[in-house]
Every structure is written in C-alpha cells, then in structure tokens.
C-alpha cells in the first residue's frame, strides 16, 4: 500500500469518525425523567438511530445549557419562567411524559403512610417535628409511629422536581406560600439536609433514620424507598402510580405553549403531586434531534410504562407532534 493510498484512507477514517461525532445528540437537564431518557436513548440507538447522550444535571442546569446552546436539547420538570424565556427566544416546551413527585420517608417499621398537603407543608415549615405528632397520627390510625425526629431533605440544586413539589405546597398551604414560596430553588427552612439530584435526595432519605424528602416515583420504586399516599383536592388519599398520575392530567387544558402545572388535581382518582416533564428545544434544531424527539413522542410512548413513567394522553401527544412538525421549517 503506497503512502498516497494510506493517507487517503486515513482522511476517510477521520471523516467517518467526525460523521459519527456529528450524529451524536446531546441533552441535559432534569433528573426526574433521567431513567426514562437514558433507556429511550438505548432503545433508539438499538433501532438504528443516532447516539443520544443525556446528562441528568437538574432542570436549572438544563435550562442554562440549552439557553447557551451547549446541548441539542434541555429538559425540565418546571416550565421556564418569563425571565428565562427572554434569554431563549423561540424555545419550545415539548411534553414527553407524566410522573409523580412522592413524599419519601424512612421510619423504622413503617412502610405505608397517609399525609395531607397541609401536614407535608408543616413538616417542611418545622411546625411538625416528630413522626408521632398528633396531626400525623390522626391520619394514620393503627400505625405505630415512633417519636423519631423528622429530618427534612431537599434538593441542593435548581430542580424541576422542587418546582412541582413547591407548586403543590403553595396551593394547599398559605403559610408555605408566604414563608417559602414556589420555584426550582427556594430557601428551605432550617434545620434540614440537601442532596444534589434525585439520586442525592434518595440516598439521604435511605441512609438517614427519620428522613423525609421528595423524589420521583419511578426512582423510589426502583430503589425500594417507601413513600406516602397524598390527599388530593377531592379528599381521597391516592398513591402515585401510572394510573393516578395519568388521571391527574386527563382533565387539564394545556395552553398552546404547554407550560402548565397539574398539581392538586380535582380528579377523584388523580395523584396530587403529578407533573409533565418537558424537552426544551429551539425551532432550528438539527434534523437528527427532530427525528429522535418524534421517536420519543411515538414509539417511545409505548415503552414509557416499562420504566414506570406514564405516557402522554393521546390529545396531548398529538398536539406535541404538531408542534414538533414545525421545527426546522
């Protein structure tokens, strides 16, 4: 083989490698759907699609990354604020699935618990400080609640999971609304501990006796972490499940930009702390990204339940596909 041929092959090899690199799709953001997105990426690649690299860095980090255009798509469980939208003109929110944020606990000898929104708020406000508090005991007759001190766990990073959780608590507790408020990052009353990402909060709940934190339901199930049933707006105590989070979304009328919270559902069988999770993408996204997102909104929806996430209701799915069709002209 002569030097000219060798050089030509080397150039072709470099071009091929460059082509593979260019075909890779990058995304970053919410840890809430991280399990789902990473499994979708595996399925998509196995089906012959582009490689997708998704990093769960928190919704706030995802918004910053897509705003700076350092990734092909961002992901968030809380819609971007008006101020954030100003920094990302034209960005689209595409709903991908529905999940539940659950109040997870670590109480020795207790695996089932019922809580109201007001009680959850009072725990984080430190008005309720032990697991045998009369307000908790009244909701759980027959459950042996120990006098263990409650250790509140929150997110250390900017998080859409926090946005969903605080949105709910503000709806059910005026004291929480005025004292803490709603957002992806809030000043939680002290004392308390904080973890980075869903994994960080889950780890702290699991290893801390008396801990009480909020994490995504699918992650709690996968890691065998106990979580409470929550009273919804109809007065029913409902545990997060594929059925109950789907019910929470059925009666919601989403605006044209899909930016809406669905907490404190009025559906009798709906779970109170449910939420959509969105992919954030610009209208000029490259064709490979559009193709992947179309797969997520069609084939991917069929496998969402396999990973304990609820697929979009059909009307929302069709609207999301119509919005996606406008990407790239």
UniProtKB/TrEMBL annotation:
Q: Which InterPro entries match?
A: ABC_phos-bd_PstS, PBP_domain, Phosphate-bind_PstS
Q: Which GO terms describe its molecular function?
A: phosphate ion binding
Q: Could you list this entry's UniProt keywords, alphabetically sorted.
A: Phosphate transport, Signal, Transport
Q: Which GO terms describe its cellular component?
A: ATP-binding cassette (ABC) transporter complex
A Pfam family matched in the record: PBP_like_2
Alphabetical GO biological process terms: phosphate ion transmembrane transport
In terms of CDD domains, this protein maps to: PBP2_PstS (cd13565)
Ranges of residues in domain PBP: 21-297
Q: Which residues form the signal peptide?
A: 1-23
Gene3D superfamilies in the cross-refs? Periplasmic binding protein-like II
What is stated as this protein's family in its record? Belongs to the PstS family.
Which PANTHER family does its entry note? PHOSPHATE-BINDING PROTEIN PSTS
Protein name per UniProt: Phosphate-binding protein
- Look up and give the organism this protein is from: Armatimonas rosea
Q: What is the lineage of its organism?
A: Bacteria, Bacillati, Armatimonadota, Armatimonadia, Armatimonadales
